[in-house]
Amino acid sequence: MRTYAQYCPMVRAVEVLGDRWTLLIVRDMLIGATRFNEISRGLPGLSRALLSRRLRQLANAGLVERTEDGYALTRAGKDLRPLVFGLADWGARYAFGEPRPEELDPELLMWWMHGRVDSSGIAKRAVIQVEIADRRRTYWLVLEPGDASVCHTDPGFDIDAVLSADLATLYRMWLGELELLDAVRAGTIELTGARWVVRGLPGWMRASPVADTVRAARRG
Fold first, then answer.
1. What's the pLDDT score for residue 30?
2. Are residues 128 and 194 in the same domain?
3. For residue 139, which of 149, 172, 193 has the smallest C-alpha distance?
């Protein structure tokens, strides 16, 4: 590894964290990713070979450790939370404009959304068909007590509700710029189906971990 040859704590931190993808790996681990495949699914532009290399580098730096079923942040890794989410705050205020087309990935969004579902209030299986009209893509969220999964093909269960919107609107909902029910009332999102699912979905589907940061920046 090339160094900056400067004796400074900031320089040492940049040498550990400044490589491409490193902070995003830490971000995903801070919000709950522990298995190699989970981290890989959340970073689709990162090759598995490079992910392995970055995890080794983080382990050698004392930020990550191997566990029986994956990886975990050490105390030093967990202490990066203020830095990582501080960058999110700065980015939301000063560098977060309109999305670029290549930034809107429906499969990644569905992966993120399913990972934030609060299934503690779900009493029985709920299957939500998600239609992304402008991409002509359909996904299925299968929500069960204590579990949530996303399917790219019809899972074969009865559909309890249908959620339909364009991709950019779904991203705005995910990032907290609009609330699901407000968007339904405005007609930018369609939500139809069984009443217990329509009523429950806004509480089950939590927004992005940086949603509060984005909301604050937008208000500012």
1. 98
2. yes
3. 149
